[in-house]
Amino acid sequence: MNKLTLIFAAALLGASYAAPVRAAEMTEKEKAMTNPYPNDFGPESLPDAVLKSYPANVQAGYKKLTSPKAGCAQCHSAARPLNSRFVEPEGGIDEAKQEAALNKMKKEQPELFKDGTVWQIETKVWSRYVKRMMSKPGCNLQKADGKSIYEFLAYDSIKRKTGANAASWAAHRKGLVDQLKAKNPKRYEELKEAKDL
Fold first, then answer.
1. Which candidate, 42, 50, 46, places its Cα nearest to that of 79?
2. Per the count of CB atoms within 10 A, which of 48, 101, 107, 111 is most buried?
3. Residue 26 DSSP class
4. Are 4 and 59 within one domain?
5. pLDDT per residue over 11-25, tens digit each?
6. Are residues 102 and 146 part of one domain?
7. CB-count burial class (<10 Å; 0-12, 13-18, 19+) for 20
8. Are both 11 and 58 inside the same structural domain?
């Protein structure tokens, strides 16, 4: 082989590895934004009046969640959890209490279980989410931070998405799903097929 052929072959070989290397170099945040959820079209913060009505420990969890140097900002915007359909029944870490609260919700608010794109009500759903978030590469949250964020998400999901706020939440959430469908129909169909809207 002559020198020109070797240079050409090396260039081709380098180009064939460029795409996989770039994909591997993508940050968690870049990956998240290339695969949006309806949640990502919502606000990245809560109104001050809502936040001020929450207990101090819950407000502290919100601050950790929305911190630009920690929390969700490492992997995606705070919009993703704040506008999520996830609702964890009351009961704290006690699964039996959560099960009892879940059964009560099914009796008293059956409408919350009719549209899975608006509400996904499960025991320990936020606990699983936070643990998964903390296990991602580069996540620098400490265990106490994760607990604080979990407390906020569990409390907020009940207060803002159920009871007297259920109708306004449903309208908000349906609007986010519609935005995803209009702006990214391919992703909408993927999530619809996976029952993950």
1. 42
2. 101
3. -
4. no
5. 444 444 444 444 445
6. yes
7. exposed
8. no
